[in-house]
Amino acid sequence: MTLLTILFDGVAYGMLLFVLACGLAVTLGLMNFVNLAHGAFAMAGGYVCAVLVNQAGWPFLAALPLAFLASAAIGAVLERLLYRHLYARSHLDQVLFSVGLVFMSVAAVDYIMGSSRVFMQLPEALQGQIDLFGVGIGRYRLMIIVICGLLTVGLQLTLAKTRFGSRLRAAVDDPRVASGLGINVPQVFALTFAFGCGLAGFGGALSAEILGLDPYFPLKFMIYFLIVVTVGGSSSITGPFLASLLLGIGDVAGKYYLPKLGPFVIYTIMIVILIWRPNGLFGRTAAR
Amino acid sequence: MRIRRRMLIQAACIAVAVAAPMTVAGAQETVKIGLILPMTSGQASTGKQIDNAIKLYIKQNGDTVAGKKIEVILKDDAAVPDNTKRFAQELIVNDKVSVIAGFGITPAALAAAPLATQAKVPEVVMAAGTSIITERSPYIVRTSFTLPQSSTVIGDWAAKNGIKKVVTLTSDYAPGNDALAAFKQHFTAGGGQIVEEVKVPLANPDFAPFLQRAKDSKPDAMFVFVPAGQGGNFMKQFAERGLDKSGIKVIGPGDVMDDDLLNSMGDAAIGVVTAHIYSAAHPSEKNKAFVAAYKKEFGQRPGFMAVGGYDGIHLIYEALKKTGGKADGDSLVAAMKGMAWESPRGPISIDPDTRDIVQNVYIRKVEKVDGELYNVEFDKVDAVKDPGKTKK
Q1: Burial level of B253, CB count in 10 A (0-12/13-18/19+)?
Q2: Which among B208, B210, B232 is the nearest to A13, CB-wise?
Q3: Domain chopping of chain A, boundaries
Q4: Hey, are the CB atoms on A256 and B241 less than 8 Å from each other?
């Protein structure tokens, strides 16, 4: 039964990684923009949620959508002001720019919110564990799994089946032809970018309970977002999704069964997969 | 043109001649203290507490001692030892400080040690807690604590109070290993058994697998040491897994239950037993006044780091009084050795042999008092020297 509990924890942890990283999969994977400041948007969402819950007394579940909206709004503003000038620049420029943004966000949050770790006050119903045939199921982790499952399906449908999804893919693959066909490319990019940031913020709010929230959040977890997207490949949402699950379960099981190896398990998985498939699990093989 | 230039040179000479004795006189009137603390980065709460406490002390006791004016120069090293070393050098060479103080983490305190020795400047350690620090320079004096001090006491207490099987969960870095070694030695000597030893990576996002492992080995208690900040996450996940209801106690050195974080941990923390040097709930008059003044000034309660800073500046003040204002390193360190006083945490003294602090270690349990969580003391061991050194 312990095995199942570990599996459950691993899935929940993986789902959490997925929500945090899928926004990056959208901006990095679909828009081909190396946005290392992704974690900063996640942190923004986390703090918005924490302030609403702890100081304004909002219920946690009501604050979650607001975390999404706030981060999306910040993302939209920054996209218009800063990011869009960098779409055509080299990846190195994008990396330097977004890393700078990360350090600025760390300093700003440290100044405004203080450096102490913030804890979210959760409703009673989300605390504790349910015992299901001897398998310990954490309520909060269960909620994460449900929310993330729905989110994945929604995202995949949006990208694959909707008009917006096909416009986005067209705009990414060939902006010139796309705009010739009457697609407003800058608008599509702005919306997508804001949406990716919103997802990050949503993930930040969800993860605060388990990962903790402090001004160093974007630096501490940057590596995890990148691993997910690298292992998953950047052409779809399914890739990062499966990668998150694999890494989450691998990490939790590794730490349980081989605690001495600690954090190495997740890196080992990454290296093995990248040797096997250098473009990630679902990467595009042809260079763009 | 030439005349004007000569006049300028003359004027400059006069100005220098007049100003030079003034600066010398000025240096005699002021005693400068170089305070190096992490005011940003993950350790910032340590720096802020100490800085606050020193400001409070100077406000309460004035900024002149033995006829000298005290000037504190604060530098933010962001807990990076390279910065600490550079600032220590600048402070000693350029600012001519008489004392360097602060030091949020062990590597920072160690980085400054050779400079203290070379320049014969006292280094007052107000936070860092690894045993070896005071052995690295004859000019280091500590007013915080050492991890073995509290970990051995909780080890003895656990063995005597019906705890037989313990799982340890410690962060994998020097202070964590210090705490683990000290606890293990005393707990097993008292007849206890360590059933599982889990070391958690320092940057660890999720405690779930480690907690599950601990739960499966069904111990009586878990010994926990994680850096301040992570303690809250640990307690929340501990409760989430239902370990609080399974009868497994949480014990440890008191860092995990720091007063400035305790309230935000929520009720999961109730019942945790820790051994530590200071609690905001310490029932002495001195402490009540200290907590009230600190709260009034800064809007929150002080933690053990604040007390380390408060006592550190007190030590410098008293040493200056004793030397009659003589501020050279040897006189100051000699004056500090053996000094004893009543601190907000209780009676403390500086061991003349090791220059490390000797203090009571209290056993406390987290309880709800007037709607707030406090570490309520219920037992103590008097005048504990650092066990990391007494062995030798």
Answers
A1: buried
A2: B208
A3: 3-217
A4: no
